[in-house]
Specification:
4 strands, globular
């Protein structure tokens, strides 16, 4: 949970993990969103979505996966996204965001943050709170270390 008691969903889109199907990504997000909703304290209505984009580049980006994600956020989970944080996004994400930004609502633009791994502790403590930020920073460090990432089991 962040400092406002909003559930945090952390996902790693790249890293050293095997290729995952579009169907699996879509189903995984639905399960994560539903779990976030069910874990909300009374009065909390939004969640935080953090996408670690380490090791993602143009060559391994799947447009269909991204479209499915945003369709999901827009339809059954409309109004539930409190913050989206993209960690280490590739330049193609920056360019795409700049292209669509003029067509986005200001309140949606305010929800999007771009952060480098090296900036997490400095930039996200005010957003997530110190405890969640530290936990995220440690998770990023593990997932960016090939040996540790490949040894993980869930």
């Amino acid at each position: 949970m962040d400092k406002n008691k909003r559930p945090i969903i952390y996902t790693t889109a790249g890293g050293y993990f095997p290729e995952i199907s579009l169907k699996y990504c879509y189903e995984h997000n639905i399960i994560a969103f539903e779990n976030a909703l069910h874990s909300m304290a009374p009065g909390v209505e939004k969640f935080v979505y953090i996408a670690d984009m380490f090791n993602i580049g143009y060559q391994n980006m799947d447009l269909k996966t991204n479209i499915a994600f945003f369709k999901t956020i827009q339809a059954p989970y409309r109004g539930r996204l409190g913050q989206i944080i993209l960690v280490d996004p590739p330049s193609t994400i920056w360019v795409a965001f700049k292209l669509v930004k003029p067509f986005m609502k200001p309140e949606t633009i305010e929800k999007v943050m771009f952060v480098k791994t090296s900036e997490v502790r400095g930039k996200l403590t005010d957003v997530l709170g110190p405890e969640a930020t530290e936990r995220l920073a440690l998770e990023l460090e593990e997932n960016h270390d090939r040996e540790k990432a490949e040894a993980k089991r869930w």
